[in-house]
Amino acid sequence: MKVLTTSTNAQFLKVIPRSYTESISIKLRDDSTNVTTISDAMGVISGDYLTISHPFSLVEGRYYDLTILAGSKVIYLDKIFCTDQVINQESNKYYSVNKDEYISQPSNNDYIII
Q1: Average pLDDT over residues 62-89
Q2: I want to staple 68 with a disulfide (CB 3.0 to 4.6 A). Which of 2, 76, 93, 103 is the partner?
Q3: What whole-number distance in Å separates Cα of residue 47 and Cα of residue 43?
């Protein structure tokens, strides 16, 4: 699964496709609304990877189905999750649904168990 942001600037995807071509189409289907968009893009082949720089229009907290096509042939399938939160497993920063919404308050409640 790829993680992208809501930015409308070009974002990079680095994939290992079934076949290599620089002229591709990107098909995105929003899992929430079932709306599909198709756009043309260019990729750069470097080693075993196809690097794609493309501007996406994504909504925070949604999942998308990504299909990369070469003509009518599917060369790559994946899922995309859109978030603006910083996600870095090495520094223990994970996605939280409740970020900035739930704040715990300190309490002085003492429980007496008899």
Answers
A1: 88
A2: 76
A3: 13
Q: Which residue matches tokens 């899922």?
A: 79
pLDDT per residue as tens digits for the range 19-62: 999 899 999 999 999 999 999 999 999 999 999 999 999 998 89
Longest C-alpha distance within the chain, in Å? Answer: 74
The secondary structure of 9-44 as a DSSP string is SEEEEEE--SS--SEEEEEEEETTT--EEEEEEEEE
Question: Has residue 36 been placed in a domain?
Answer: yes
Residue 86 forms part of a structural domain: yes
d(CA 47, CA 59): 32
Which has the closest alpha carbon to 3: 51, 58, 42, 47? Answer: 58
Predicted model pTM:
0.75
Residue 24: CATH number of its domain: 2.60.40.10
